[in-house]
Write a structure and sequence with these properties.
about 190 residues; alpha/beta; Dihydrofolate Reductase, subunit A; two-stranded antiparallel ribbon; 5 helices
């Protein structure tokens, strides 16, 4: 048994995963009803989520300050979850969440053999950059929002990462110019 590991990232056209603090929000104001419904369907299937500590802390902060998440985000955060961290200590104050310390690559390799559920990570850019470089990512799902954030972009998705060849698995367009691209990544040698 080997579970598929999907990296799920939101990006601007110029490759940024997030806006600088105090600027545009997470969907850059471009979400559409059709895209949100698509996301709900994606998270209707049981999955095991994998997050890095910073992404976990961000979602935890949103919950602590009372931000009501979109239904797909609520479903994602209600899924079984492993947080890969050397700084967080168990137990986490989150239902069905565990902390895994140690090498992230080994943690994900172990999870791929131990779970019957597909593995998915949303965000966790630096964690997933390392996992892609190690060849443990089976599927890269990029949601490209129709914006360029040259002055307001933060956290370039591919900064300091290796080169990859990408085999296109699927592409879907949504109202408002959002495009979802699914790839099978292979380290370029």
């Amino acid at each position: 048994m080997t579970a598929e590991y999907t990296v799920d990232l939101f990006t601007t056209l110029d490759g940024f995963a997030a806006p600088k603090a105090g600027t545009w929000g997470g969907y850059w104001g471009k979400e559409s009803d059709a895209w949100l419904e698509h996301r709900r369907r994606q998270f209707h299937v049981d999955q095991h989520m994998v997050f890095g500590a910073d992404t976990y802390r961000l979602f935890r902060h949103f919950q602590d300050i009372g931000i009501e998440p979109d239904p797909w985000v609520a479903r994602m955060l209600g899924s079984p979850m492993t947080v890969v961290s050397s700084t967080l200590q168990p137990p986490l104050d989150w239902p069905d969440a565990t902390v895994a310390s140690g090498d992230a690559i080994e943690v994900v390799r172990r999870l791929k053999t131990e779970t019957d559920l597909p593995l998915r990570s949303h965000g966790s850019v630096s964690l997933n950059r390392a996992l892609m470089a190690a060849g443990v990512v089976d599927r890269l799902l990029l949601t490209v929002f129709p914006v360029i954030t040259g002055t307001n972009g933060d956290d370039p998705i591919h900064r300091d990462g290796p080169d990859f060849d990408l085999e296109l698995i699927s592409s879907t367009s949504f109202d408002g110019g959002i495009v979802e691209l699914a790839y099978r990544p292979t380290l370029h040698t």
